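Annex B, item 7. Sequence and structure tokens for protein A, then protein B.
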Amino acid sequence: MRTIDLQTQIKFERILLATDFSAGAEVAQAYAVGLALQDAATLQLTTVVTLPSLDAISECALDSVRHASEEDLQRLADHLSDVKVTRKVIEGFQRAGAIADEGIRSLADLIVLGTASKRGLKKLALGSTAEEVVRTAGCPVLTVGPRVAAPPHGPISFRRIVYATDFSAQAAKGVKLALALGRAAGTKVYLCHVVADHGAPKDEPGEAKFLSSLRALIPVSANCSCEPECVVEHGKASEAILDLAKRVNADLIVLGARKASFWLEFIQTGLTPALLADARCPVLTVC
């Protein structure tokens, strides 16, 4: 990921939209277009042709799938005349790996993709694809869940941002990105830590320590107009983050750790799928 300069407002100049042309992908597309309009970015439209195991499909049939995918991307590009668009059909044996690799090859500043909840399994239908892209991408990933409404047409800037952290080593990248996105006038950034208290009484000294740790994450050079607010929440991590986001009417959630303990805790307990699937605003995960 490129170095984030807190003295200037961050711009995503190369945005990769991974689409499967589903209804969920249409909302993700609207966000990708809005961000491209905001930053005068190039939007790369990408879809994945998943390669089959040997002898599972003929080369002729595979060529037909490739051709159909090219046509689908062309039709999508034809409807996006107000942004600079490129398109590319990519191939791979594993969808998430193909998307993450293309993000690296294309020097993308941001990957955008939609998710669809599989309720019984607490998984995602671009599924676990979204989780894997988040864990392996070389740039921030914006996931747009099934509860996220399409934004109004036009440039998009985020005005109420919730950043959640467990103070892991990766946290500094996340807070810098959240604050950089919050440099626009009128933006509010909430820095949040969740304490799993299991119903125990609040530990006031401990809470004060967490608040101090959150404030310490704000670089002296931040100098932004968003006036960050530090918040300690209690309960299950995903539920507490979603409750805070709802309470403050957040239009973006930022998660700052990808492979550190915070993220691994989500993966192991099944909370990551719940957070991505249940959020009513996009979730930006920092690599």
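Protein B:
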Amino acid sequence: MIRMPWFGWRTPATVAEAARILAAEGPQAMLIAGGTDLVPNMKRRHQTPATLVSLRRVPELKRIVNSAGLTLGAGLTLTEVVDSATVREKYRGLWQAAAQVATPHLRNMGTLGGNLCLDTRCTYYNQSEEWRKAIDYCLKKDGETCWVATASKRCVAVSSTDSAPALIALGAKVKLVSSQGERDVAMAELYRNDGIDYLARKPGEILTEVMLPDAQGWKSTYWKLRRRGSFDFPVLGVAAAVKLAKDGTVEEARLALGAVASRPFLVEKAGEYLKGKKLTDEAIAEAGAIVASRAKPMDNTDLDLYWRKDVVSSFVDHALREVRGDDMRATRLRIARQAL
């Protein structure tokens, strides 16, 4: 049995109280909501906070506000996101992403904010303390060498969040709150391409809500590659959001990639290419080639990295055909093992 390290426990009732606790405790404090990622990491001694600040009893983090767009509290469980009729009907890409995270049990515990702040992953990092010690640790934790790319001075651990690529494609923003105030950050700007310093969230800041713009005229989708039909983290995530004119011409398009770098990111050139065009087979194929050229998977997660790069264009093809209105149910069922 791998035991948890000793830690203190605080249960604030408001975001303001949680922010004050974080400011007072300093870098030795960490936030916990569902704990589906943090608790296993603490058992493996990836993180050993002196104090955990629980957000489970903060009601303002559980809000869903419908207005011109949609605001989702970061404390909503992924199951609650999936159960939202508004998310399912208007923000289909986010609904599909949330529905494919892990298993029902983990979605019942894991939160939207937790999935967005998910720690980066790597074959050499996500191991027990004894295993990592045996290889002299790695650059991400306690060591000086990246065992994936030994000449690299940057950690190349991979971002494995499902919801982030979908929200980036949808043009979402997040609200970050600290004892010093609050600020809004575009979802695409929340992430850094560094396996260690992977979030632009400052120490002491709490991700409190996700703000989605009006979805009128937009269609979105999310496609995920993993070995098994459930539980596994993505080894590729493709999100697409497209605004179509009445004649089928693309007015705006955003395509985002996940699980192929230390951050999820927008492929601007693909969106620019599609703008003003119709989603013909030729246009979809070219957009797929543009997106695939930006995918740089590393050999530190499941499945062959060259094959994972090769299938990017196919997943973009699936996503854009679904947005176009093609019946992709059989293909999705074969890939996702879920009727989404």
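Comment on protein B: The chain is about 30% helix and 20% strand.
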